[in-house]
Design brief:
mainly alpha
Length: 976
Amino acid sequence: MDDVEKAIVISFDESGAIDSELKSQAVNFCQQIKETPSICSLCIEKLCFCKLVQVQFWCLQTLHEVIRVKYGSMSLEEKNFVRKSVFSMACLEGIDDKMCPILESPAFIKNKLAQVLVTLIYFEYPLIWSSVFVDYLRHLNQGSVVIDMFSRLLNALDDELISMDYPRTPEEVAVAGRVKDAMRLQCVPQIVRAWYDIVSMYRNSDPEICATVLDCMRRYISWIDIGLIVNDAFIPLLFELILVDCLLEQLRAAAAGCVLAVVSKRMDALSKLSLLKSLQITRVFGLISDDNDSELVLGVAALITGYAVEVLECSKRVNLEDAKVVSMELLDEVLPSVFYVMQNCEMDAAFSIVQFLSGYVAAMKTLSSLQEKQMLHISQILEVIRTQICYDPMYRSNIDILDKIGMEEEDRMVEFRKDLFVLLRNVGRVAPEVTQIFIRNSLASAIASTSDRNVEEVEAALSLLYALGESMTDEAMRVGPGLLSELVTNLLSTRFPCHSNRLVALIYLETVTRYMKFIQENTQYIPLVLAAFLDERGIHHPNIYVSRRASYLFMRVVKMLKSKLVPFIETILQSLQDVVTRFTNMNFGSKEPAGSEDGAHIFESIGLLIGMEDVPLEKQSDYLSSLLTPLCQQVEAMLMNAKGLNLEDSPLKIASIQQIIMAINALSKGFSERLVTASRPAIGHMFKQTLDVLLEILVVFPKVEPLRTKVLSFIHRMVDTLGASVFPYLPKALEQLLAESEPKEMVGFLLLLNQLICKFSTLVHDILEEVFPTIADRVFSAIRRIADSSVEANTEEIRELQDLQKTLYTFLHVITMHDLSSIFLSPRSRGFLNSIMQLLLHTSCHHKDIVTRKACVQIFIRLIKDWCARPYGEEKVPGFQSFMVETFATNCCLYSVLDKSFEFGDANTKVMYEKFGDVFLSHFVSKGFPSAHCPQNLADQYCQKLKGGDIKALRSFYQTLIGNIRLQQNGSLVSR
């Protein structure tokens, strides 16, 4: 080895035995060699004399780079030398009487040689090197080595230039078009003839080279003249290769790939249909029943599915009735094999089962009626769906306990099933009776099955029934067409052997809930529904995930059936007694509190049941008392012992109180305001007593944020439930809630006040007047920290302050819109008036959220109406009128609109004109418009429009005016 060869070998070393510094020197040396003017000659020489694959690869890679990057600067002599030398290597010719060993090298070296040839073709074919393909064809008689190299050249040409499976630049697309056009004119027929002759000659003696040739040919069928392949010579040869048992499987699969390329070639629908019919594809159907993983079966399976896709596409595109009949006949022929492939073979990545079947079902929709054969196809589609949605039994234990593997598999299947369920719903619309019979039979078969897949089969059958329900309208569900009644009856009356499985239990309950509209009309099934939810299949299921979901679904069932459940209340309460007891007799020594989520749903369900007026008062009182009394007693006991709390026990006990509050809150949702305040005040009295107890939590635990949040939520609930009778409890509640002034706490407090104002309007005036100064003081102190923070700050604290500021705008808006603006003028609140006005003005002009800006403008408009009597004169709020005329009008209604960030109708200036008259108009026109560079004629027109009564005309002109001013001031005006 000379120094160059040594350096190349060292640079490629990956063993770690070479010193890193030496390897670095070798890499640098090789890079320097690449830059020498004689690099092409050096590479050709090494390729002729050196058999080291590292050297061969480096030389070919270097030639590829030089041609690709420096072709334009190479001399004519150098180009001719490289072209002749590389072509000679590929054709097994000698260079200066020396045979190159390249074609004896490994496949990756020959592929790199093909890549170098393609790079030359890119620049030189057909204008400079027009004979490359014709010249190469003359050398194919040298045998399989040259044939193999020619195939590699054509494959590389497809990969590097022609195939549109890879992203291409516009220049590459243009070159590819030029190359294909030249090949079509010059050599494609000869190449196809060579392929035919090679396959015919070598099919028995060298089937591997025949397979290589056919794999290469498959790539080119999409753009060459189809008549070169579809003729009396080539098509029979291809089918003969596919069907002869004794041939190499790889060769048979390659032949199937070529037929698939023929089938997939783009052409007009009638020509395609004629071609598809002529192929007599039924000849290959029997081959897919062999070994399902063999290369031949996979190739034939891809051919069958590809053929079916093309037939289906033709059926959509042809308009002639005869052609439609032919396409449907061909579909009927191929579909049974397609269904077999879908269920038994590994699918080709390019084939989408759902897409194809959806297309077929869509075609069925266009038919006036389905024939028996098409009904059979629909049944087979349903079987494919059922097979596809089945979970793999190997994941059963993982999914049941829901470990990491189980969660990943379940998530994957949920996503995978989506399109299949859409397909099922479409099938259900095309053939509802067939679909219902299939699901009934699937369910019966799954129940009777004793196979290892029983769990998965039952889950799949139930999932089909659930998806069917999703496709039905409420009216259809109520009427229960076809077999629906039988399906629901079977569903409710069947005890599945695998009901302990989490997936089966969950889909069972979901399915029962899905058909609740049917149960509403068929109340005889209610006992079966209740049993399903209340026994070990639902709320008492051993799996916590199932029992929690069952609790939620049962609540939905109660909401839907409601009054129809009155006769069953005693039964339901008895069945839920153990669940309720976990809350009413909580063990504080326990290390784990009861599950809050399922508990809240259970209590909400009970509340919905016992809160109905259909329940007699005496029983209602007993039910409610039996629940509220022990819960409140636990809270009282905890509060009494609060001072002696062990710090280690405190988190657990606090969590227990949280759950009790959530339970009471959920329970109260079933009681309407009318019932507890008007028709049955005794029930209201119980909730008032409960509120009194829970408010004490704020006194005893003033710093425990989770408890404060839960109590606040209960106060919200009591405002809705108790109505105005909640007023005596508000002073204590608001006082305790105001004890904490953190932004997050204050947001919750303002939301409660918003609810009170929206519900009671001016009735809360005195309460609001009392708390507003404290609120204003704390909120303005807090939001000043936003202005003091850096623009880049994105901490949780800043986000909470921004949330508080946003809530403040809503709060101020609610106050003004409910006739409570006098609150701002009370003696204790008046000191905050200027801060409020400045904040609202700045927000009206500059806030990034358009909705917030508009809300603040609406506040000002309302304040004008409240505080400014017409005519312009005596002031209710000194300075407010001049502030509105001189500051708000020009800054908000003119300048801020000119910054192009705010589009706003001009009703606000109309209101100001109505209230302030010519004083407003004079200032707006004499001060505002001139500073905005508004032409006088436009200002005069604006005055006329403003004095007129047509708001639409004013708004339209205002938009035109602003557009003109924007053009003239060209961004020079800075908002004041």
